[in-house]
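Forum: Protein Structure Q&A
Topic: Joint prediction for protein chains with partners

I've read a bunch of threads here and the consensus seems to be that you should model interacting components together rather than docking separate models afterwards. I'd like to see that in practice. Below is the full input, 238 residues plus whatever partners are listed. Could one of the regulars post the assembled result?
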Amino acid sequence: MINGKEKLIVAIDTNEFDKAKELIDKLEDSVDIFKVGLEQYVATRGKTVDYLNEKGKKIFLDLKFHDIPNTMQSAVRAAVRDKVWLMTIHVSDLEGMRQCAVAAKEEAERLNIQKPIIVGVTVLTSLSNQDLQDIGCNMTTEELAIKRAKLAKESGIDGIVCSAQEVDKIVEACGTEFVTVCPGIRPATAAVGDQKRVVTPADAINKGAHYLVVGRPITKATNPKESALNIVREIENA
Ligand SMILES: O=C(O)c1cc(=O)[nH]c(=O)n1[C@@H]1O[C@H](COP(=O)(O)O)[C@@H](O)[C@H]1O
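Posted by a regular:
Agreed with the consensus. Here's the joint model:
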């Protein structure tokens, strides 16, 4: 049977350190992996990363780097020094992604620590086909996500972030070893909010997602711990 705790990543999207700390403390028995994203990182200048390292939790640093190759690879080296377990860049040009893959490996070897898993964001789960048309892309979200996943694989990074709506096709195209991280996860009764390509935890697992990212359905719940445990159970029963 799958261990649901090893699959669930909780997104701590608050802009105050004290609120993040309170959530982490409430969830520490039921959750092993926490995501520190833009909002939390910028507001607390990375303090949450230090707190999670002190607690021995796995850290997903979600800053979605997208810049010229030299800037990206240098930022990746800094993230390695923060001892993160998984981190995001955007799927961009091959050279930029290649340099990130090499930088992570070199920096981890230099420090003799574990290399973070680097995943590239393919197509944000808040985007629809119409949104892509509006920004000048004549592909469907699924076509673009698959194309970008293949490019990410070619570059040597470890995996991608995608909606679970297309994860089965990406597994088919890139293989089961290529890491798939799926946000836009919504239990059947949860509010969708600004997400457009959502999938339930059970369906995401059945379609081959390695990791599920869940924020508001847990962090905004009346009882976050119970909500996390329900999702862990749903993953295990999938
Ligand atoms: O990279 C991400 O984690 C990410 C990519 C993506 O395509 N969609 C997406 O929602 N995310 C993140 O996943 C989390 C989802 O949060 P909820 O919508 O509250 O469950 C947020 O922290 C987003 O920043």
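The chain has one domain: 4-237.
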